[in-house]
Design brief:
Largest sheet: none
InterPro entries: DPS_DNA-bd, DPS_DNA-bd_CS, Ferritin-like, Ferritin-like_SF, Ferritin_DPS_dom
CATH architecture: Up-down Bundle
GO molecular function: ferric iron binding; oxidoreductase activity, acting on metal ions
Organism: Pollutimonas harenae
Shape: elongated
CATH class: Mainly Alpha
Number of helices: 5
Protein name: DNA starvation/stationary phase protection protein
Structural class: mainly alpha
Strand content: under 5%
Family: Belongs to the Dps family.
Distance between the termini: 45 Å
Number of strands: 0
Order of helices and strands: HHHHH
Length: 160
């Protein structure tokens, strides 16, 4: 869905802005779902790695929370409304929600997979943005890729 106001003339066609906005909406949905999962695990982790994981999860969900605004605001800058409901996120996200409180090792595994899913979504969106010369979106997605790949690596290291 897009705004109905003064036409946007930034050198990217309306069709291309719609395509990139849809990909960014998927990125926002994945990012929000991962944020929520990470925050949930922060609250509910137990076991010998409690303090390490509790702090790591807090660092990761705090960073993710800040990123949500950047993604949503880029969608708005392209002339579209950002999705903002659980129903929309459920349709757009590639990450499944957990239905129970897993043990600490399973939490780590789920967060590795979640970060990798966000990275894949970012990579797809980045290709579409790059194809239409949308450098601000490419820059945003490059930063997100770096963060999610690093998070996945750090989490994966705990399992070795």
């Amino acid at each position: 869905m897009s705004d109905k106001g003064l036409p946007i003339d930034i050198g990217i066609s309306s069709k291309d802005r719609a395509t990139v906005s849809l990909e960014l909406s998927k990125m926002l949905a994945d990012s929000y779902t991962l944020y929520l999962m990470t925050h949930n695990f922060h609250w509910n982790v137990t076991g010998p790695l409690f303090n390490t994981l509790h702090l790591m999860f807090m660092t990761q969900y705090t960073e993710a929370w800040q990123a949500l605004d950047s993604i949503a605001e880029r969608i708005r800058a392209l002339g579209h409304f950002a999705p903002g409901t659980y129903a929309e996120y459920a349709k757009l996200s590639s990450i499944s929600e957990t239905t129970s409180v897993p043990d600490a090792e399973t939490m780590i595994q789920l967060l590795v997979k979640g970060n990798e899913s966000v990275a894949k979504t970012a990579r797809t969106a980045l290709k579409k943005a790059d194809a239409v010369d949308d450098q601000p979106t490419v820059d945003l997605l490059t930063q997100r890729l770096d963060i999610h790949e690093k998070n996945a690596w750090m989490l994966r290291s705990l399992l070795q």
